[in-house]
Amino acid sequence: MEGKTEPLKNRGKSSEDDKLFGNEKEQIKIIEALKDMYYLLSRNFPAKASVGLVGNRYRLKTRQIKALQGMSASSQDISLRKSKEFTPEELKGKTIYLDGFNVIILLETLLSQGFVFKGLDGCYRDISSVHGTYKRVSQTQEVLVTIGKIFSKLELEKVIWVFDAPVSNSGKMKSFCYELAQQHNFNWEVLLDNSPDKFLCKGDKLVCSSDAWILNECKQWFNLGSYVINNLFPNTKPPYIIEP
């Protein structure tokens, strides 16, 4: 990897997370809150008002509310997303577009043993964010190589990474992806776009993302996070993976 050291050792885990998510009492509270969110959202209650109401009822902390938002979905959204989801077997010969930072940060968090959360739509999400600046961590290269090998095994025609151009270090990530692609013979293209969400949803692109808006608006998608997690942990999930 470039440079002598990485600026961060791991991704995504806050000092308070073990207390907020690591014990059964808190997990039960979040799952109960999720049931209420599903009820309200499925009846077209506004998302912001719903999460405010439910968060207050269960006295959730800020990071718990963020996790709850990522796990929540209405019955309508779940049906819509499932109707457009590709199976691994359907990927052969396809070109896929990856929501770059969204995909990478989730798997960096997973490999860092930070908490990740399975949504009602089957997508896993983290509660990290780049806040306008992305910094590679010690798991970044492993994540990229793992994704490359997965898509090679599934016999995709081409993988196109799409990164948010305004995010700091997106240009460095583009260079790093091409460097790894050359080393491992991955058929990758890397794009920087000012509005990657809209770009991914334009036309009939097959995309990888766990972003709720993208999943609702895109033509077709593949659940890469679920595929990776189910293959890494086919039987029992580790305690830092929270599921409904």
TrEMBL record:
Domain of life: Bacteria
Positions of the DUF5616 domain: 89-226
Segments forming domain DUF434: 30-84
A Pfam family hit: DUF5616
InterPro entries linked: DUF434, DUF5616
Alphabetized PANTHER family for the sequence: DUF434 DOMAIN-CONTAINING PROTEIN, DUF5616 DOMAIN-CONTAINING PROTEIN
Name used for this protein in its record: DUF434 domain-containing protein
Organism: Flavobacterium rhizophilum
